[in-house]
Amino acid sequence: MSEDASPNGHAPIHFGLSGSVGRVLEMQTKLHRWAVADPGRRFDDLFNLVHDPATLMVAFDRVAGNQGARTAGVDGLTAFDVERDIGASAFLDGLRSDLKSGGFSPLPVRERKIPKPGGSGKVRRLGIPTVADRTVQAALKLVLEPLFEADFMPVSYGFRPKRRAQDAIAEIQRFGTKGYHWVLDADIEACFDSISHSALMDRVRARVKDKRVLALVKAFVKSGIMTETGSTRQTHTGTPQGGILSPLLANVALSALDEHWHRDWLPGGRMDSQYQRRKRRRHSEPNWRIVRYADDFVIMVHGNADDAQQIRDEVARVLEPLGLMLSAAKTQVVHIECGFDFLGFRIQRSRKQGSNKWYVYTFIADRPIRSVKDKIRDLTRRTSQADLKNVLIRLNQIMHGWANYFRHAVAKHTFGMLEDFLWRRVVMWLKTMHRWTWSDVRKRLLGPHGSWLPIAADGVELINLSRTPAITRYRYRGNTIPGPWAPA
């Protein structure tokens, strides 16, 4: 490490969370700066940073503040139980002692199956680690993420700080308007379950030299799974979904895809300038651009269908050393005028009505509409006796988050349709629960001027989707997205 590094494992244990956050941010900033300055550097002496009191305190705070804080692993303990029965300080002191002595060993994750959206009947397997394992994974992520962020390509958007799905959609929309009309819409078969551990660890070793950190990462990916029937299954491949470290490790593995397809855009590459790209097109050579969000990605091609098909074959060859393969059923080569779904959006190029101008539009895909309707139905079943206020709060949370995600799409008509659907479902539920007639509904919900009053209970009003803030196109940020550790 550099001489300006802060102390690693010799800091006092007793300091507040606010001070810990500052120490961790300073540590991350230095690691990121050194990684950017020396792309080939392998970092040693990272283990002391992992079990540093400040790192563990920030890690536990993130675990305890997460939605899964009340979900237990195989030991039956939740973060709430730890704070109530053991105390955060005593828990972290013990965890730090186990890490330093080498006595820490992760337990198998508890498997939980949840249905995939869309009503396909398929399930997604989640792995729920114990609170101790989650804390150590969060500490590892705090230390490792700044290193690998220095190497990740700008075309990757999933599970990365200060990046979001809308950035990926904006990039697709931008290149769709620049002649990249053929699209390889790719899907990796069981990506999180199939990543080769040896290939993954090789990529981690490219940046990490500390054997204790490498052993810890390897122990987590090989910790095993306790199924819902109580049996334990070994994990020879993959990074179980649900772990804090899993998205980062998946990005580390899949960055091989980004590097292969984006290297021609880097300085000195075949497509590093507009002149180079135009020259390639004059010689009937294709240009391409990959846009990836975690294990979902598309490759946009400025060429023809045969060029896109050749890229599909090459993608399969790039994925093979990682132990991954494309899903034959879900991977397709499609023209952008036919449209394709990506991250819940429907992206399609079409002619603007009443003109000869063509634009790339983003609509809301059918699946998320069906999914949010199912959630509304579940909360407003006719036989439900739930408290109206609690139902309104939950509906508002769901619809506010849903509308905020999709508000940059061409969504005004969809929002209006869902507003009507939501209002009808709540009214029909109230009619059944209170045995109202339509005369009762009008008496309670119709205003003096003939307009409907908002449905409310104890000061909580049902959200009005039609009043969602102005729907505007998301601003394309491209390579200007600031990192969390970039200098001011």
Structure summary:
The chain has 488 residues and is of the alpha+beta class. It is built from 17 helices and 13 strands.
Characterise this structure:
The protein is α+β, with helices and mostly antiparallel strands and 488 residues long. The chain is built from 17 helices and 13 strands. The strands form 4 sheets. The chain has a 4-stranded mixed beta sheet with strand order 2-1-4-5, with no helix packed on it. A 4-stranded antiparallel beta sheet has the order 6-7-3-8, sandwiched between helices. Helix 9 packs antiparallel against helix 10. The chain starts with 16 loop residues before the first helix and ends in a 27-residue tail after the last strand.
What characteristics describe this protein?
488 residues, alpha+beta, four-stranded mixed beta sheet, four-stranded antiparallel beta sheet, 17 helices, disordered N terminus
Distance between the termini: 23 Å
Beta-strand level of the residues, as a percent range? 5-15%
Number of strands: 13
- Residues in helix, %: 40-55%
| Weakly predicted, low-confidence segments | 1-14
Tell me the series of helices and strands, N- to C-terminal: HHHHHEEHHEHHHEEHHEEHEEEEHHHHEE
Structural class: alpha+beta
Q: From the alpha-carbon coordinates, what is the Rg to the nearest angstrom?
A: 26 Å
Q: What's the helix count?
A: 17
SSE topology:
Elements: H1 17-37, H2 47-50, H3 53-64, H4 79-86, H5 88-101, E1 109-115, E2 123-128, H6 131-149, H7 165-176, E3 182-187, H8 191-194, H9 197-205, H10 211-221, E4 225-226, E5 232-233, H11 246-262, H12 274-282, E6 287-293, E7 296-302, H13 305-319, E8 332-335, E9 340-342, E10 345-351, E11 358-364, H14 366-379, H15 388-406, H16 412-434, H17 438-445, E12 456-457, E13 460-461
Parallel strand pairs: 1-4
Antiparallel strand pairs: 1-2, 3-7, 3-8, 4-5, 6-7, 9-10, 10-11, 12-13
